[in-house]
Design a protein that fits this description.
This protein is α/β, with parallel strands linked by helices. Helices cover about 35% and strands about 15% of the residues. It has 23 helices and 15 strands. A hairpin with an 8-residue loop joins strand 13 (about 360-370) and strand 14 (about 380-385). The protein is extended.
């Protein structure tokens, strides 16, 4: 069997208490099959229903018992028809016995594979476990579970159990507790994982639809010093899942050609610009890199010679306080360092260091080169991961840290520096607190929603649409994206189906929550004046060049605010302030009988606000005082009287701590300015 190839038997409870959730179960299981058509075309699947009205399984024929269990599909290679078995599952009227169903599933796998294929066989049980399990003919239920677990270990069969527990009245708590205890016994005695879900969204993520075998990115020594080394294995703990690679296909091949692949082959030819008919062979081509106005040719041999070729290895550089490693420093995927399996000395050494780091609140800094010939060196932080399970050793989590070239500096003024009038009052703060509490993802009763372990990526789960039309035969050759690809394979002209309501619940707020807490939202809206800023068309010319119109003046202020908001360089703030100052000066110089006063005041207000936000009060105060000194004895003196009537003053220390102007001096402008000049 291939490395990642697996055989899965789905055990689905269709008893009376499961009827309300069976539509979701059908969707989730169909999605599993559709994904296997993409990622695991050689995987094998089988379907078993229990709690049915009928009985159809080989064990019942051979030894009797195992009633109300139907083998819906024997184990076989996954195909498009497998999805059809999961549509409109029969609703049974008998209580489901999940122990009997597990035995039937194990029997199917053993008869199919025998002693081979160990570790690549999986049983997936979906039930609510609300009905009592039948008493065995010999021994206790616990003894029966031990026997089954031993058989699973012998044949390398894993068990994934999803227990659906919606809040339904009339459930027997004693029975559910006993069943939960039996399922937990599987997790202790066999390779089993038990997951409880209480919503369709959690069900989507609880069923692992793709089998990804763990692959080490590094096996070797964790070098603490030249004389102390620990054998470790490194795996990826998280890695972004991406769409399968799309290939180019064509429907031009004749439909009668059974061996047609429909693939499109693309060839490239390089031709000389001097002689377009001449093809340039590979040996006459060389890469060039632009260096100023010229292009510098560099051969492959030269490029290999200048490449940085560090040696493979993982070395400890030192330790630091965990508080020194800020969360936003983490880059890329998360790795896990585990001691070499079976190496007792490595297990003890890793545990000792991890627990010491935990006690001292320390993190380790490592230099990592995962493989020989790797073209880069990784510097990262190692954090302890203390195990809470006896048979699982302690380990480390590793995150890549940025170099200086990877850091993006965005400077923002502190909210504490804003004037008190810009700070929220007690009622506003209370309204905001209530809004946050309302949207808490951890309700008082129940588990947190949208947990990463059980929340599927809606981008990968939603349907995908082809942008080209091909023949139905060609579609049979293409691996399809989940539900839509399955639909498109059967109906080439099918429309894209609407987004599943459970996936919509991942990407959008829950309407029920907003409906129940409408008063909280209304109170928040009442305490904060929310206005929609209309979008303005951008002018082809800068708004503060030449004599502007009223509309261009508004755009000029918008341009100023946009420049002040840019964070890719600190130069934008000083540039925006300087250009706005020049613009205001031009307005006043070209003013005729005060026709530009209102525009100048609007720009001054924008400049004043921007200087407060960016902690540049001295720039504004210096400019305003300079204007007064320049124009106080001219016909523009009445402009400053207009400023005073509109309470446009200097920026005081109360508004911006960096200001050297007191509140009293700011209010008395321009009187104080006149006294100082005298």
């Amino acid at each position: 069997m291939a490395r990642n190839k697996e055989a899965v038997v789905l055990l689905l409870d269709v008893g009376p208490s499961m009827h309300s959730v069976l539509p979701e179960v059908e969707r989730v299981c169909s999605m599993l099959v559709q994904k296997k058509l993409i990622f695991g075309k050689s995987d094998e699947v089988g379907f078993v229903l229990f709690g049915t009205d009928d009985t159809y399984n080989e064990l019942q024929k051979e030894v009797g018992g195992y009633e109300h269990i139907v083998v819906l599909r024997n184990i076989g290679v996954v195909d498009g028809n497998a999805v059809g078995f999961l549509q409109n599952l029969p609703r049974g009227n008998f209580p489901g016995d999940f122990i009997d169903a597990i035995v039937v599933g194990i029997d199917l796998l053993i008869k199919k594979f025998g002693p081979t294929n160990k570790g690549k066989q999986r049983i997936c049980l979906i039930t609510d476990a609300k009905y009592p399990i039948k008493e065995p003919y010999e021994g206790t239920k616990e003894d029966q579970v031990n026997t089954i677990s031993q058989m699973m270990q012998t044949h390398g069969i894993r068990l994934d159990c999803i227990v659906i527990r919606e809040k339904l009245p009339g459930a027997d708590l004693r029975v559910m507790e006993e069943n939960d205890s039996l399922l937990d016994q599987f997790s202790r005695k066999a390779i089993a994982k038990i997951v409880h879900v209480d919503s369709p969204t959690s069900l989507l993520g609880a069923l692992k639809t793709r089998n990804i075998s763990p692959v080490t990115v590094f096996r070797g020594d964790l070098e603490l010093s030249s004389t102390m080394k620990i054998k470790v294995w490194v795996y990826k703990k998280t890695s972004e899942e991406k769409f399968p690679t799309l290939k180019k296909y064509s429907g031009k091949a004749h439909s009668s050609d059974k061996f047609a692949t429909y693939e499109v082959k693309v060839d490239y030819e390089y031709k000389s610009m001097e002689d377009p008919d001449k093809v340039v062979p590979p040996e006459q081509r060389i890469r060039g890199y632009r260096y100023g106005p010229q292009v510098v040719p560099i051969s492959s041999a030269e490029w290999e010679a200048v490449k940085f070729k560090p040696e493979k290895g993982v070395k400890l550089l030192g330790f630091t306080d965990a508080s020194n490693i800020l969360r936003h420093y983490y880059m890329k995927d998360v790795y896990i360092f585990i001691p070499e399996p079976g190496n007792q000395k490595a297990i003890v050494a890793v545990s000792a260091i991890a627990r010491a780091m935990k006690d001292m609140n320390k993190s380790a800094i490592l230099r990592c080169v995962w493989r020989q010939g790797q073209g880069n060196v990784v510097i990262g932080v190692l954090r302890p991961n203390i195990s809470s399970v006896d048979n699982i050793p302690d380990s480390f989590y590793f995150n890549v840290l940025p170099f200086v070239e990877d850091v993006r500096e965005f400077q923002f003024p502190s909210f504490r520096s804003f004037p008190s009038s810009w700070q929220p009052n007690e009622q506003q703060q209370e309204a905001a607190d209530n809004l946050v509490k309302m949207l808490d993802l951890t309700p008082s009763e129940g588990e947190e929603v949208l947990q990463p372990d059980y929340t599927p990526n809606p981008v990968l789960e939603v349907s995908y649409c082809f942008t080209q039309t091909v023949s139905p035969t060609c579609y049979d050759k293409i691996r399809r994206f989940y539900h839509f690809l399955d639909l498109k394979s059967k109906q080439p002209d099918a429309d894209v189906p609407p987004l599943d309501r459970n996936l919509r619940g991942i990407t959008e707020p829950d309407p029920a929550v907003f409906s129940c807490h409408k008063s909280v939202i209304d109170n928040f809206h009442k305490n904060f004046e929310l206005k929609e800023k209309p979008k303005k068309k951008k002018s082809s010319k800068r708004a503060w060049r030449g004599k502007p119109s009223a509309s261009s003046e508004e755009e000029g202020v918008d341009d100023f605010e946009a420049m002040m908001a840019r964070r890719d360089s600190s130069k934008w703030v000083s540039k925006a302030i300087k250009e706005m100052q020049n613009h205001v000066s031009d307005l006043l110089e070209n003013s005729y009988e005060g026709d530009a006063y209102s525009k100048a005041i609007e720009c001054l207000l924008a400049l004043r606000k921007g200087c407060i936000l960016e902690q540049e009060p001295k720039e504004f105060n210096r400019f305003l005082l300079g204007l007064y000194e320049k124009w106080k004895d001219t016909d523009l003196a009445n402009f400053f009287e207009l400023l005073s009537s509109k309470n446009i003053t200097l920026i005081s220390q109360k508004e911006a701590p960096d200001s050297n102007v007191t509140e009293e001096d700011a209010k008395n402008f321009p009187v104080k300015a006149e006294l100082k000049s005298q």
